[in-house]
Amino acid sequence: xxxxxxxxxxxxxxxxxxxxxxxxxxxxxxxxxxxxxxxxxxxxxxxxxxxxxxxxxxxxxxxxxxxxxxxxxxxxxxxxxxxxxxxxxxxxxxxxxxxxxxxxxxxxxxxxxxxxxxxxxxxxxxxxxxxxxxxxxxxxxxxxxxxxxxxxxxxxxxxxxxxxxxxxxxxxxxxxx
Length: 177
Fold this sequence. Notes:
- By secondary structure, the chain is an alpha+beta fold.
- The chain has a single domain, classed as Peptide Methionine Sulfoxide Reductase, Chain A, CATH 3.30.1060.10.
- It has six helices and ten strands; from the N terminus they run βαβββαβαβββαββαα.
- It has helices at residues 11-19, 53-57, 77-87, 116-130, 154-157, 167-170; strands at residues 2-8, 24-32, 35-36, 39-40, 63-70, 95-96, 99-100, 106-110, 136-140, 144-146.
- A six-stranded mixed β-sheet has the order 9-8-1-5-2-10, covered by helices on one side.
- Strand 6 and strand 7 form a beta hairpin.
- The longest helix has 15 residues, at 116-130.
C-alpha cells in the first residue's frame, strides 16, 4: 500500500471522486500544508494544534486535502495522478469551480520520498501538454490533520451536496474488480 495526499479544491468532491477507483483502498479528508511557500500564514495556529474547519476558512493556510491509500499493484501512481488532473484545473490559483481561497489550492503532498520522481514525471508531462507551468504545489507532507467527522464521506451522507467536480466524473463507469 502507498499513500498520497491530494488537494483539489473542496475535499468533499475530491474524496467522492477518488473513492470510485479500483485500487483505492481508502480515503480521509483533512487539512495539510499549513505552511505554504516556506512561510507561516498571518493566521497560523500554535505549533501542534490541529486546525478546525473554521480555522481553515479563516485563512490558517491549510489546504483541504484528501489522503488516498492505494494498492500500487492495482492502480499505479501515474494513473492515480492522471485521474487527479482530470478532476482539477491545474492552472487555477487558489480556486476550483466556485470555491475560492487558499484552502482550495491544488497540491500533491507525499510522505514517501520514493513517490517524488513519479510525481515530477507526471507533472512535467502535464506542463508540456498545457504549455504552461502548473499551479499545483508538490511538497513533502509536513502534517495531515483529519477533518471533523461530519466532513468524512460528506457527499455519500448528503447526495445533493455541493460539488465543484462535474457529476459525470463522480460516476465513471469503471470495472471494480
